[in-house]
Amino acid sequence: MIMAVLAGCGLIYEYLLSAYAGRILGTVESTIYTMIGLMIVSMGLGAFAARAFKEPFTTFAWLESLIAFFGVSCILLIALAVSFSAVLPRVIAETFSLPPDLVPSGGLLEGLQNLAQLTPYLFGTIIGFFIGMEIPLIARVREKVHGEHLEHNAGTIYGADYIGAGAGAAIWVTMMLAIDITKAAVITAAVNLIAGLVFLYFFWAKIKFRKALLAVHGLIVCLVCIIYMYGENWTVKMTDLLYEDEVVFSHSSRYQHFVVTERYLIDQTEPVYGFFINGRLQFSSNDEHIYHSMLVYPPMLVANEQNRVLIIGGGDGLALRDVLRFEPKAVTLIDLDSELVNFFSEEGDMSEFRSDLIELNEYAFSDKRVSRIHGDAFIEVEKLVKEGVRFDVIIVDLPDPSHPDLDRMYTTYFYERLGNLLNKDGAMSVQSTSPYHAKRAFLSIGKTIRAAGFNQVEQYRQNIPSFGEWGWSLATHGRTSSRRRLIDMDGVNMRDNQWLTIDLLVAAFEFPGDFFNELEQIEVNHLGQNRIYRYHDDAWHRDMGIYRD
Questions:
Q1: How many domains does the structure of the chain reveal?
Q2: Strands 330-335 and 391-397, bridge-based pairing
């Protein structure tokens, strides 16, 4: 029983370290794989190391207290290391009254930041090493208690280990994802500690240094209680230090962590809000209109009708806001995270910043023409295809293909399904990452949409001050170039958009003369190949921290 409980705790430690490391380092998928692989290797080393200890009862009892200590404190210590290394350059600049463009960087400071980013892997290695010692020690304990050569010892222990790990995975998915990650670590460590105390109770006489061990357990119990009460607040405050502006909201849903920041500019009375998901900027309130104008207006203008519109992603309601300006009869929005959509809707506590954000999307989710679907777009689109639904315009506002799970929505398979939903005289736009920072991913998206059966696929770009040059793809089933159609729209109604003009839209389709030279070498992305993910991931590693996730 103890082995099953400990196996469940061990798996949860893997998940929570992977999840938190992905949140603060940004590269979610590669971080998760690296963490799990590293912990498995460390567990193997721990299993070998267990042979060096001659007293299995004493060693196991101390081992559980160590796992509980590192388990309960690891998230706080990682947050401390990362926030300290991020804040130090600013502290130095303020101490010596340096101007903003002379904040120190590189050298020792860069080395400290790199070391801080390795702390999740350090704790993963330590905890994995200790977890790896558990099975050999438990096996020796059972042999000493039940006989010299206990029959089926290995089978019993490994069976309990596998079942416990399965239970741990279920607990993580059903419970732990819905609570703060610091509390998840505390609860897991507490269970670890209780298992160690049960072991201590049953084998008290066989354990050495009992009083010292009890004192250590008492201290860890106090630590568990303190971190349970204050750890979430401490972690949030340390994580908030990673943002340049003041953090006014921070929340973790089952799927992601989102943050709202606030900045007051000298010449403005209204604050500028930044919205981040998993540490990556999604929009800034002072220039989001550029991104959403370029995403929404081209397909809405090019399509012959705008009666029925499908938006995939866009849980902030900003693309929806622009769509509603065209007076459609019905809009369907698919977004995975209901908590995100509710945050940008008129539901729950209306704090000042939240009220401002809902005003920014012009109360779009309150419009009776809007239908929400909360679910995986890959699955929900299949359902719509089977229902035979058709749309005049489809707008794909998904995050960048930063891990394989998102790559599915950048494949010929997914675009073919969207093509089945699009009317023959309709139009589709797709958020297509940065043509400057992730050029190959951008080109592959356009090429993949074309391979999915669309007759016209044209790509365009625009500079957005908050995160640089960005790109989109515009696809239709028709034979006429979308750009040509835009050129012919002299005097078209821009629906109260004071920034956008037809000339600006047309100019966005222009690229440098050699931009498409390598297009033949760029591969189309089919389901399961993860090519666009790899293109994007390569670009991310070349230029860490620039991309919008």
A1: 3
A2: unpaired
549 in a structural domain: no
Report how far residue 413's alpha carbon sits from residue 78's, in angstroms, rounded to the nearest whole number: 40
Quick one: 91 and 126 in the same domain? yes
| Same domain for 429 and 505 | yes
- Choose among 139, 135, 83, 145: nearest CA to 113: 83
3-class secondary-structure state, position 228: helix
Angle at the Cα of 433 (from 369 to 460), degrees rounded to 5?
80
C-alpha pair distances (Å), 350 with each of 80, 386, 473: 32, 39, 36
In single-letter form, the type of residue at position 464 comes to: I
The SS3 of residue 408 is helix
d(CA 190, CA 193): 5
The secondary structure of residue 148, as a DSSP letter, is T
How far is the C-alpha of 196 from the C-alpha of 217, rounded, in Å? 9
In which domain, by residue range, is 214 found? 2-240
Nearest partner of 204 among 65, 61, 1, judged by Cα:
61
Would you please indicate which residues are annotated as catalytic (active-site) residues?
397
Q: How many CB atoms lie within 10 A of CB 50?
A: 22
Per-position pLDDT tens, the chain of length 549: 676 788 788 888 888 888 787 766 655 566 777 888 899 899 999 999 999 998 999 999 999 999 999 999 998 999 899 888 888 887 887 787 777 666 777 778 878 888 888 899 999 999 999 999 988 888 888 777 766 555 556 667 777 777 887 888 888 778 887 788 888 999 999 988 888 888 888 888 888 888 899 899 999 999 999 999 998 888 878 877 778 788 898 888 888 888 999 988 877 778 999 999 877 889 999 999 999 999 999 999 999 999 999 999 999 999 999 999 999 999 999 999 999 999 999 876 778 889 999 999 999 999 999 999 999 999 999 999 999 999 999 999 999 988 778 899 999 999 999 999 999 999 999 999 999 999 999 999 999 999 999 999 999 999 999 989 999 999 999 989 999 999 988 778 888 888 999 999 999 999 999 999 999 999 999 998 899 999 998 887 665 443 333
With tokens 């939240």, the residue in question is: 354
Question: Residues 364, 339: one domain?
Answer: yes
Question: Considering the domain boundaries, does residue 104 fall inside one?
Answer: yes
Q: Which residues pair with 252 in a beta bridge?
A: 257
Q: What is the largest CA-CA distance in the chain?
A: 91
Which strand (E) or helix (H) includes residue 123?
A: helix 107-146
Give the span between the Cα atoms of 215 and 209, in whole angstroms: 10
Q: Is residue 137 part of a domain?
A: yes
Do the Cβ atoms of 217 and 65 come closer than 8 Å?
yes
Q: Regarding beta strands 308-313 and 391-397, do their DSSP bridges make them parallel or antiparallel, or are they unpaired?
A: parallel
The residue written with tokens 């440098």 in the block is 512
Please indicate, yes or no, whether residues 358 and 210 belong to a single structural domain of this protein. Answer: no
Residues 167, 21 contacting (CB under 8 angstroms): no
510: number of Cβ within 10 Å: 11
Q: Could you write out the DSSP letters of every residue in 528-548?
A: TT-HHHHHHHHHHHHSTT-S-
Helix (H, G, I), strand (E, B) or coil at 235: helix
Q: Are residues 307 and 207 part of one domain?
A: no
